[in-house]
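Backbone-to-sequence.
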């Protein structure tokens, strides 16, 4: 929202934020201060990630920077892996699959999106993760979501669709 240039952009973000708030289903429960502080820290970190990723993605058009980032992450976590008894080929293969599915593919898509779409729109589209998780919980795990959560999913989805459409028109 800090980079919103139009009232509609701020409006999209506010509707999505309201939807995320509805996910919590605030039915008289209190929010833990530590959880709120960590959520705000996460939001600031995500904002910084989007701004920095856009700058890096614009300066390095190929995937070399992502390859470097994944290599550095692997080196930083190597000491933890060396001490664990995971040197079986099946576990190494599973770890490689997790790395590709949880880091390489999403970050590649983020960099590609940030080259074409403003960070504020990508940030709003990222809020769809909570909506997808809610729907997956209902469909895959059989969770019963209260009406407030479905309303939150609708707010986030509508806001992301409107922001995506607005961004597509401005390209």
């Amino acid at each position: 929202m800090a980079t919103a240039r139009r009232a509609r952009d701020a409006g999209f973000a506010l509707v999505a934020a309201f939807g995320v708030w509805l996910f919590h289903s605030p039915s008289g429960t209190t929010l833990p201060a530590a959880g709120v502080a960590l959520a705000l820290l996460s939001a600031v970190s995500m904002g910084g990630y989007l701004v920095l990723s856009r700058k890096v993605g614009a300066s390095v058009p190929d995937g070399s920077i992502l390859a470097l980032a994944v290599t550095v992450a692997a080196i930083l976590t190597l000491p933890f892996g060396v001490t664990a008894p995971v040197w079986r080929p099946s576990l190494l293969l599973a770890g490689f699959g997790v790395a590709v599915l949880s880091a390489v593919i999403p970050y590649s898509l983020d960099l590609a999106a940030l080259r074409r779409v403003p960070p504020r729109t990508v940030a709003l589209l990222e809020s769809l993760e909570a909506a997808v998780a809610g729907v997956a919980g209902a469909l895959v795990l059989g969770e019963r979501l209260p009406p407030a959560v479905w309303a939150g999913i609708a707010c986030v989805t509508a806001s992301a669709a409107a922001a995506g459409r607005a961004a597509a028109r401005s390209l």
